[in-house]
Amino acid sequence: MAETIVLAYSGGLDTSVATKWLQEEYGYEVVCVTIDLGNLPDVDAARERGFAAGAKAIEVIDAREDFLRFFAFPALAANAVYEGQYPLATALGRPLMAKLLVDHARAVGATSIAHGCTGKGNDQVRFDVAIHALAPDIKVVGTARENLMTREQAIDYAHKFEIPIVETVESPYSTDENLWGRSVECGNLEDPWLEPPADVFEWTRSLDQTPDQPAEVEISFEHGVPVVLDGEAVDPVTLVDRLSLLSGEHGIGRIDMVENRLVGIKSREIYEAPAAITLLEAHRALEAMTLSKHQLRMKDRIGQEYADLIYNGLWFTAHHQDLAAYVQSTQRYVTGDVRMRLWRGTATAMGRRADRSLYSHALATYGEGDEFDQAAAQGFIKLWGLPVQVQAGVQLLAEPGGLERLAAPEGE
Predict the structure, then answer these.
(1) What is the pLDDT of residues 139-171, one digit of tens each?
(2) Mean pLDDT value across residues 342-365
(3) pLDDT 10s digits, 48-77
(4) Which has the closest alpha carbon to 263: 304, 302, 217, 313?
(5) Of 14, 51, 12, nearest to 152 (Cα)?
(6) Largest separation between any pair of C-alpha atoms in the chain
């Protein structure tokens, strides 16, 4: 009896070909699992291709809300952005997909799980590591890195087995998208000197096509999680969908970067993440009101570590549990409202308020009602500057030319 393999199936050229190739090469019975994290292509057409390729079954799982609640929003709470630019949309989707693939493999008695990630990308690492963390006994097959078909060869293979496809050799880009963002690579984007062509972008307008007037939107958070949009409580999928459309209309969320892949190469990537960028700016603005200076400094460091962890496929680790516990602790009082202005590619916080805000008007104001004890400043400054004064007198000014060196240290 043939072994069963569960294939992460998008319905595109590569995974349609993989469905047939796994049968022809290894003799597997193939169960296709399509996981909807947002912007799923034509499901009916994907089913047709899968069954034409000989799939035993095709399962479609709507995981959009789980993706936002348990993956994207925790990353938002951490302000996790890879290398200062990428909000990690694709990287955040992989651990959830791995978990659902493992769950389905257990349900149908599969011995293996397959994905179509290439041997040069990050996603193969994310899938393999996550699957083996959750199910060490399950074999992982990377179809693209094992069959090594070029795009032209994959198209010929599909034609040979009469798999209905829509891709052509002329289609230059490799794309991936979910509710949190869209990524584009390959084609002429591989030359970092070239400006991205207009047809690369689908979710965001170019600046010369954005509205003449800005838009304002109010976002309300509870414990670091966005829950209300313009006074209306909405579910996560609706909130992100609406914000993505509005922010994209104003050109927000375009990212063109050369990033350091986990596998050791640099890659030019184009991302569109309109909702993610707007929510990150709003969340940072609210944290500035509700976290102390030391919490904010530590969160900056934790956020970078959190982003690296997600990017590197280490979601299902004790290290992640430890970081997540700290992040959740910091969000206890991150509850309030932020008014965002969306215009000309920029999301800007124009107002913020919170019931547990650390901002005190009575302490900050220079006008009537000032409660700051300015008389205490002199003593504070004396004690704060005391070690500076002592070291300067004993060491830095005690040698010839000390004053000059103190004023202009060597190397400046």
Answers:
(1) 999 998 999 888 789 889 999 999 987 765 555
(2) 95
(3) 999 999 999 999 999 999 999 999 999 999
(4) 313
(5) 14
(6) 90
For 203, the token pair is 């979710």
| Domains of the chain in sequence order | 4-171 (3.40.50.620), 176-291+333-360 (3.90.1260.10)
Would the pLDDT of 98 be above 70?
Answer: yes
What is the C-alpha separation between 313 and 334, in angstroms, rounded?
28
Q: What residues contact residue 141 under an 8 Å CB cut-off, 6+ apart?
A: 5, 22, 26, 112, 113, 114, 115
pLDDT of 229 above 80: yes
What three-state secondary structure class fits 134?
helix
Task: Give yes or no for a contact between 259 and 266, defined as CB atoms under 8 angstroms apart.
Answer: yes
Q: Give the separation between CA 364 and CA 358, rounded to whole angstroms.
A: 11
The reported pLDDT for the residue numbered 168 is 57
Sheet of 254-260: strands edge to edge?
174-178, 181-185, 266-272, 254-260
SS3 57: strand
Token pair listed for 45: 């057409």
Supply the DSSP symbol for 262.
T
349-375: average pLDDT: 93
Phi, psi of 61, deg, nearest 5: -115, 125
DSSP 299-368: HHHHHHHHHHHHHTT--SSHHHHHHHHHHHHHTTT--EEEEEEEETTEEEEEEEE-TT-S--HHHH-SST
Task: Please write the tens of the pLDDT for every residue from 79-88.
Answer: 999 999 999 9
For residue range 279-336, list pLDDT tens digits in order: 999 999 999 999 999 999 999 999 999 999 999 999 999 999 999 999 999 999 999 9
Q: Which sign does the torsion angle of CA 190, 191, 197, 201 carry?
A: positive
Alpha carbons within 13 angstroms on the beta-carbon side of residue 239 total 25
| ∠ CA 347-91-107, rounded to 5° | 130
For residue 65, which of 172, 180, 177 has the smallest C-alpha distance?
180
Specify whether the CB–CB gap between 328 and 307 falls below 8 A: no
CB 124 within 8 A of CB 117: yes
What does the alpha-carbon distance between residue 216 and residue 347 come to, in Å, rounded to a whole number? 9
Give the separation between CA 60 and CA 406, rounded to whole angstroms: 68
Catalytic residues: 14, 94, 123, 174
